[in-house]
Amino acid sequence: MGGEFFVQYLLPVVGIVIPVAAFLWEFVIIGRKRLGYRVQMDTPVTGSIESVFPGVLPQLRPSSGESTPDLQDLSIVLVRIENSGFADIGGSDYRGPEGSLVGLHLRFPHRRVMGMAVTELSDDGLADSLVPGAGIAVREDTGGHIGVIDLPRVPLDRGDHYKILAILQRSRGTGEYPAPAVVGGISGGRVVQTRNRIGVPKMMVALTVFLVLVIIAQLAVNAAQPPPTPLDCASGKLTLLGSSAFEQVMKDAADQYANRCTGAEFAEEFEGSERGLDRLAEHAAPDPGSITISDGPKGDGYPMLTPRPLALSLFSVIVDRGVGVDALSTEQIRDLYQGKVGNWREVGGRDLPVVLVNRIPGSGTRNTFERRLLGAGQPERPHVSCTALKGAEQRDGAHCDAQVTADMTKAVAQIPGAVGYAEYSEAERAKLTSVAIDGVGANRDSAIDRSYPFWGVEYAYSYGELPADSLAASFLRFLTDQAGKDVLREHGNAPCAELPDPGRCSPEF
């Protein structure tokens, strides 16, 4: 609770206070008086210098009588001195020995100053402070091989500037020169090197990063919070039974409900539609603590069970990737499961024996498969475990039975030449080939418009009517009218309430 309070309430306050404090510190406290310098040019002397600064070079070169010394390894530096703060700088604001006329020192390591000139004044009145005798002078720190231009205590109003142009000769070393620097101090402020006003200042970058981190922290905390509790929450324990084809859908929906309604607890026992209906009917009395999911209508044998349609569900015929077939007609599928086709080459595939994988009798998925695609039952075949076929040499007419959907997808994936059927999202999860049927691929839209034939309706069954305040009733409302519909759609199903003809979900007795 303390961490949530900090992130939701204190952190936004900190996110406001720090930028404001940074602004006041930068621009009111330490930045109120700020003398800046900017090196605008530092380049070797070439013929092009004369064209850029005509007549300046002769003025800067020192002379001895009528002759000019032969200067080599020369460079020209242009430095801008400016008031970059928010307050005026007076002559008395410069730090230094009492009575000294010098306010700043412009230093050039590894170079001696051969000549200098003031080239630009933002205000003509600054000239009075930059004349000989006012403190401006050239000297050399011979011990450190550093050329120095002493600059006077020039009063600078906000925004004022002047420029110093100097000609220099190397006094030490080779290669690139160390950068010029201005040394000095301002009472109540500072001397800083300024940059060309392009790009984003570091302070702005730092503040932006800080604010982004504040926002990310708030989003992370909000994302970690459980969603708001819906008005229809109920508590208690609910056991979900029935269809293994719809197992993952129901588990995902139950997890979402439990995240929103913390008093709800779910148990899952998906052993197949028929087994789930049997277990519910065996209660012999209304039981709001259990519901069964069935791949299709319950039939006449369970008169005490009350149906509630959930969604139009999508199924697919699945094959081993090695059979070389990705499309079949309804007639070919019937011939396969009637035993009329024993080798895949007979339907355009490879020379490989067909292995029929079936769900056990009573499976809702098997009932849907036979009703939608076969139009009738299948020839009676002795029970054969799919595990017994794995790794064995197959012959024409081989078959096996799978207890639940997971067994079906595993058998088709592991037995060469296998063909089976399963709920579409489970086939996709197992990365199996779902064949097109009559030229139409398995997808929700084609099932809704009936161009794809292998579909069914998922029903939830309860023993009698459910109390309105029970967890079972609340969970079913969540599935049919609330966010649970998103889970159904995510798995490729179409909620019954959203169908163009919702009556299509009515149980078919």
From TrEMBL:
Domain spans labelled PBP: 231-481
Protein name from the UniProt record: Substrate-binding domain-containing protein
Pfam families, per database record: PBP_like_2
Keywords from the named record: Membrane, Signal, Transmembrane, Transmembrane helix
InterPro entries attached to this UniProt entry: PBP_domain, Phosphate_ABC_transporter
Transmembrane segments: 6-31, 203-221
